[in-house]
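Late entry, evening session. Most of the bench is empty. Finally got around to the prediction I had been postponing all week. Sequence below, unchanged from the version circulated by S.P.
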Amino acid sequence: MSLLIVIINYRTPQVTLDCLASLAPQIDDVSDTHVVLVDNASGDDSLPHLRDHVERNRWRWVTIVASPLNRGFAGGNNLALSTLLDRPEDKYVLLLNSDTVMKPGVLRHCVAVMDAVPSLGMMSCLLLNRDGTVQLNARRFPNPLRLAAASLGLPWLFPPLFAWADPDDPAWDRRTTIRDVDWVGGAFMLIRRKVIDRIGGLDERFFFYGEDTEFCHRAQCRGWNVRYDPRVAVVHLGGASSDPSRVSARQRDAMQWEARYLLQRRCYGRLCEIFIRAVDIASFGLRYLKLIVRGRRNTPEYATQRDVLSLLLRGPGTRAAVWRG
């Protein structure tokens, strides 16, 4: 067996090195494991810092690739996935966020699960926050009906009737339950090589959110299952490449809204995208008017509703200005 691990660095060299250090003890657990580390045009001292530490630690299993431009999460991963053409022996690919820390035995266990269940196209494990709480990295697909109900707040206003519409799918224990799910996050996604050969890589129309959901949806449409298995764990610090020192909260929100509508278009069609955008505008518009009627113009809540409504009305497609300008 052979495993290719892909890690993207964007202005987080020390976080990335901590990730590699946690990986090092497990490299020999899966034969012929190799890491491709893509620097996504960080424009800082990331490259020399990474190269120096990789050389000093003698991590010969790491290959550093310098992208001439920031290709986003999907594009950066696809750049590394192109090396599969030269490595026909690779049986699995692990997409791994740079802000993760591996617990013992993760690689060995997950590859063994994939070997034992040929119908699995991809899988993930238990993801923990820094404080040990559980992240909801396995969720339901945000199909149009589910997303519309959630936009109107129905799962929280009428839980018995609309619990099915909560995209986070919180009603099961992620610490103990092994199950097939709709999709798993790209912070830790182990993929069978055959899936990539048959459906291609990540969709580069997504820049920084939504690409993992779309990829799982595409794979399931081709008959592959997605597994969540919490018997091993990874600590995911979260947001390292999109913290306020790298991108503002407003810019990050714009990218999330952009991905929300692109996901509807790619998975369910243009009419569904238009429908969800209309529901969102109506929902935020009603909340906005309600605050005006109640005389709450000087509150943070009013400012938030106003800013989101303005963003939705003009269209959130701002990723080029955010990352590539």
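Two things to note before I forget:
The two ends are 42 Å apart (CA to CA).
The chain has two domains: 3-136+174-241, 249-324.
Will write this up properly tomorrow.
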